[in-house]
Every structure is written in C-alpha cells, then in structure tokens.
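Cast an eye over my tokenised protein here and flag anything odd:

===
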Amino acid sequence: MLIKKPSDVASSEITPEQLYLRRREFLAAGVAIATLGPRVANAAAPAPVPSPVTPGALPAFTKSPLSTTTEKQTSLEDVTHYNNYYEFGTNKTDPAENAGSFKPRPWTVKLEGELAKPRTIDLDELMKMVPLEERIYRMRCVEAWSMVIPWVGLPLGALLKKLAPTSKAKFVEFTSIVRPEEMPGQGAPILPWPYVEGLRIDEAMNPLPILAVGLYGKVLPNQNGAPLRLVVPWKYGFKGIKAIVKIKLTDTQPRNTWNILAPEEYGFYANVNPKHDHPRWSQAKERRIGDFFKRDTLMFNGYADQVASLYSGMDLDKNF
C-alpha cells in the first residue's frame, strides 16, 4: 500500500474541504451510495461510455480572430475523459463514464430578467441569433491543471446585445439543469443543485467569453457540458457552468454555487490571479495536461491585455 506524504500529493488530487465534509454528511445520512455511479459494489451496470465526440454536425462556423494562442492543443482523449463535472460524479473520469444516458436534445434556454426581449427559446434558434466562432483557449481549473481546447460557440457579448439588456442589468446569472435521473451525482448533496454561476455585465460583454456548443469542430460531448456551457478564459475553471437552461440579467450580484459552499475559498470573480493562494495550496504554478513539469501561472491566464482594464482600481486579492 502506497501512502503519500502531503508533499507528494498533487493539488489536483485534493478534495475541497467543504466537499469532503458534505460527503461525510451524505454517508452518515444513509443515502443510497449506489447513486454515485458504477464504481460502487453491486451497483447497476454502468452506462456505456459516450464516444469522445457526440454524433452530429455543427452549423458552419468561422475561426475567430481572438483565437490567438499558438500553444499545442490538448489531446481529444484528455479533453473528453479528464473532467470536473460533479453532476456525474466527483472523480475526473466519472463524467465520461456516467454521462452516456444524458439527453442534450431537445433543449430550450430561458432568457429573463432585465431584458427588452425575455423569452424561452430552442437552442437551435438561439444558435441562429449570432454567428458561431472557433476560439482556442487555455482553460484552467483551480486544482492547478490546464488544457488548451478549440471551442466552438456563440460570442456571449454579441448574444446579449441581441437580447437588448435594460439599463438595470448589472450582472448575468447562469443556471444549469437538474435531472438526477440522468445525472447520478445530483442524487447526493455534494453541491446545492442546480449549479449557478455569474458574471458582471461588462465581463460578459467582453469579446472573449463564449457559450460553447462544440469542441474540435464537433458537437459538444455530454461530459464537457452539452449542449451549452460557459467558457470564460481568464477565470478559474469552476466558472464554466455546464448544461445551461437559464440566463438571467439582474441588478444584483448572483450567489454562485462554490461561493455559497465555501466563500473563503471560491470568490465571485475567480479571476486567474497567481498571487492569491487558495487557502490550502499555492496557485503560482500550473501543470498542463500531458506535461511533466509545472509552469508559471499567468495573470488572467495570459489574457491581461484584453481584460485587465475591467478590474482597474480593484483589489484582486480581496476580489478573488
């Protein structure tokens, strides 16, 4: 039996303290552990592992001029089989193993709040509102690992302009779907469901964020957030809410899920700031999936030229 010393444990293997405590509460309550997935003895046979890319073709898309990184892209195998998606389980391999029965179509999105044109719209109609673009981003997660992913999606700012926000719109709140019958992780009180995230309106209107509907030129796989997820490249990965069913513009700051669960560890802004350590690990270094050595974490994940002005005068150590 190999027992790792604290210095040997990668930050990506560390369970957040609040999640660990919730797991203990879950087990103590005697909730059926089989709902967490096929790894549990005597559980139902696992759902078939979905193919790396969901069958189907995207509408025509163009390469965005904002796809400026020349870094080597992460392999499709890693992008689709090493994921954080607690709705399907807490291990990195759980989403690919457990997402096969999730049904991403048909799909509608509720658009509400401080909008001139609130509505509930089919995803296909939503995708026709603004052109699709391919953007290659460095996507990071708080556990200090990173990937380079060629996403295909709707520029969020362009979409919001089409919806005509009112002058009261100060924030954008995103809400994910709740389907415990298809998402086994939602059968446990791991997080307060549904998952909720938010951006300030000027962050959302920046040219960089997209609502992703695909990757590597194909329809978004279930385990990566199908059929619609948020991608904000200068923020930590937990901001990338998946399976979005509601977008609401509001005049008050949303209470995003991880900030509700552990506010001392996960702030609302979640800007990539290597100078602000997580309470239990340093964020000064990151490891690119596939690399052996770590590299320095870049301020705003390397997008400082495009977004630093959004936070002029803010204390980014407090507003983390």
User: Anything to note?
Assistant: The radius of gyration is 19 Å.
